[in-house]
TrEMBL record:
It comes from Rubrivivax albus. It comes from the Bacteria. Residues 7-182 form the Exonuclease domain. One of its GO terms (molecular function) is exonuclease activity. Gene3D superfamilies: Ribonuclease H-like superfamily/Ribonuclease H. This is 3'-5' exonuclease. Coiled coil: none annotated.
């Protein structure tokens, strides 16, 4: 079996608002794109009480509950870093894959640098929306997950649960990759 140079990792997060630092990373879900039985999930204690009501409503998460049950951010990010290191121990490079990757990556990057000191994904991310646009020739407006799902017919759906969404995104990525390799 040929060893891949890159290991694609689908990552999804839920947050309390639009930007890291001012708002909190609340949950992380991740899976290997090409082996979605290998997963990671964590719920984090919020950094502060800042929250956009719509963000909290969409995710169904509670700052009070996460304050009681979430992991301290340093602990959660260290565990995520260890999971990534384990997944890439074969010498592959971890590649962050996300649906609207700039948003999710910004929180993951901020938290890795603030609480661990380094981001194992580096300074880049692979955006499924952009890949889909390039593979299909559609417009940016046609890259929403619901529009992608109509064309790609994935088995999973998005739920706003970080792990479930990471698994869904991995499937969308695999299906989009199959279009672009035709």
């Amino acid at each position: 079996m040929k060893c891949m140079r890159e290991k694609y990792i689908s990552v999804d997060i839920e947050s309390s608002g639009p930007i890291p630092g001012e708002y909190s990373l609340l949950t992380i879900g991740a899976c290997l794109v090409d082996d979605d039985s290998t997963t990671f999930a964590a719920s984090l204690k919020p950094l502060n009480r800042n929250a956009v009501p719509e963000a909290m409503s969409v995710s169904g998460l509670s700052l009070d509950e996460l304050e009681r049950t979430g992991q301290p951010p340093a602990e959660a990010m260290a565990a995520f870093g260890e999971w990534i290191a384990q997944a890439t121990q074969d010498g592959t490079k971890a590649v962050f894959v996300g649906l609207n990757a700039p948003f999710d990556w910004s929180f993951v990057n901020y938290y890795f640098h603030r609480f661990v000191g380094d981001n194992p994904f580096g300074f880049t991310a692979l955006d499924i929306k952009a890949l889909y646009m390039g593979a299909t020739g559609c417009t940016w407006d046609q890259t929403g997950s619901s529009k992608m799902a109509k064309r790609l017919s994935p088995k999973r759906t998005g739920t706003h649960d970080a792990l479930e969404d990471a698994l869904y995104q991995a499937e969308l990525f695999r299906l989009t990759r199959s279009i672009s390799s035709r």
